Amino acid sequence: MSVFDLRLSELHNRLQNKELSVTELVEHSFRRIADTDEEIGAFLTLNEEGARRDATRLDEQLASGGERGLLFGLPAGIKDNIVTEGLRTTCGSKFLENHDPIYDAAVVSKLRSAQSVTIGKLNMDEFAMGGSNENSAYRAVRNPWDPERVPGGSSGGSAASVAAGQVYFSLGSDTGGSIRQPASYCGVVGLKPTYGLVSRFGLVAFASSLDQIGPITKNVEDSAFVLQAIAGHDDRDSTSANVSIPDYLSALTGDVNGLRIGVPKEYLGQGIAPQVKESVLEALKTFEKLGATWEEISLPHTEYAVATYYLLASSEASSNLARFDGVRYGVRANDPANLLDLYRRSRSEGFGPEVKRRIMLGTYALSSGYYDAYYKKAQQVRTLIKRDFDEAFGKYDLIVGPTAPTTAFKLGEQVGDPLTMYLNDILTIPVSLAGVPAISIPCGLAEGLPVGLQIIGKPFDEATVLRAAHAFESQTGFGSLRPALS
Amino acid sequence: MSITIKDVEHVANLARLDLSDAEKEQFAGQLSAILKYAEKLNELNTDGIEPTSHVLPLANVMRDDAVKPSWPIEKALRNAPEQEDDQFKVPAVLE
């Protein structure tokens, strides 16, 4: 058993009793990375010097007593689209290969206050565009459960790193499923908070009406701890919600008696692998046993969500990525003939194929003559999708289904077919469009690969989502599934 | 909706991308397929449905008009591929 399998409270006891030091935890992390990451490829940049310096400082603090932060001493990995001052941040893109951020993202400052230790920056699909991590400009990440398979994406490094026991927890970002889907494929816990709960200041923008940062952890309790540390209003993000943050840990009561669960028939219908469906139905039996009730419901606009998402997210991306112009940071083409030539060649040299494809799609959808037919239409359908959720939450406390239609697929299997790749997100995208919170937790194995259960909550009701996820995990023990990675 | 090479060239120009002939060919096919899939949305009648730009009940978040320190020049220029006299350097805009 790895020291990272210890519960956070137990780890803190050992630190307190001097049975363990932060330096030992950090060295354990780097050793595990040295042993496994050549194969997995989760990390793009390691923060060896900085992490060791932080560990020494925290060990000194431990010796002198004093207040400890919520995540004291925990080795953490950070997705590489979250900026870290003085620590290279590439977004998985060649465009930012040598980018040295001049400030910390809000969540990075919050982790510093909570006293976790940043081990390094995690691999991802370029600019968070992808569902398999094969769109990283550096290398594909491999799934710790089966290196022939993808870890999911776009937070593939974040999920694989936690699954491989390289870090205690990680941060990811989720635009259409990019935390939940890789968590599902890698057998870990991934939480996408309500849109606006966590500040995006310092998150490189992909689709601003959807992007949200959240934790990837080994279990639900850790998820609650990390969420507690990173949630909260920030006036540097104008879409940050000004809501009071509850005590998420006290929500983990184990009691789900009387909870009303809606199960969308669209989430268990066509295209869902039989073993995934079976695991989810088993999970519902567990919830019944715990005193919750469930009924089949309908979210009738589910089938329109993927088309809606790709139009809206790509449109927003085409606008957000206009800032990569070769002037202020990143790639700059040699000997430009003029300013336009500088823009064109810098962007063409710096961006990979999926990023170009989405910029093209978004630019098309926003262009003169097509705006109403594509962009505005998609925004209207988004209203209908959101209403589906509003209506369901009038009657139910939670919505439950699979996170993804299948388990992890093989590397290279879907690379040539962007549309098929996009359909992997069919069960996470509607949730993102509605802006509501959802968690993916392991609910079993199918042919040796993890299956993810998605638990979706009302806006800003992460407490109920975490409570149900925790009760399920405690009842089933699926939270302790680990890959047999040597 | 079928996207022609000419459409691809027009959009690439708007997006400030230079595409190779192979890329143009590939994007014409892939974008046609994606937009054909997106036509699915036309099955829905959305007359009178308000568009959703984002889900929060927020509009025009304002801050106080207070003076705050800005980045020191050397920090702001830290990642500039080319700079001169404490400024970002660009090719001549006017001939």
How would you characterize this protein structure?
The complex is a heterodimer of chains A (486) and B (95). Chain A is an alpha/beta fold and 486 residues long. Chain A has a single domain, classed as Amidase signature (AS) enzymes (Alpha-Beta Complex). Helix content of chain A is 39%, strand content 13%. Chain A is built from 15 helices and eleven strands. Chain A has helices at residues 8-16, 22-40, 48-63, 106-114, 156-163, 180-186, 220-230, 274-289, 305-320, 339-350, 353-366, 371-395, 418-422, 429-434, 462-476; strands at 43-46, 75-79, 117-122, 169-174, 189-192, 212-217, 260-264, 293-297, 398-402, 438-446, 449-457. An eleven-stranded mixed beta sheet of chain A has the order 1-3-2-4-6-5-10-11-9-7-8, sandwiched between helices. In chain A, helix 7 (220-230) packs antiparallel against helix 15 (462-476). The longest helix of chain A has 25 residues, at 371-395. The two termini of chain A are 12 Å apart. The mean pLDDT of chain A is 96. By secondary structure, chain B is mostly helical. Chain B has a domain at 5-43: Glu-tRNAGln amidotransferase C subunit, N-terminal domain (Histone, subunit A, Orthogonal Bundle), CATH 1.10.20. The model of chain B has no long low-confidence stretch (mean pLDDT 93). The chains are: A alpha/beta (486), B mainly alpha (95). Chains A and B meet through helix 9, helix 10, helix 11, helix 12 and helix 13 of A and helix 1 and helix 2 of B.
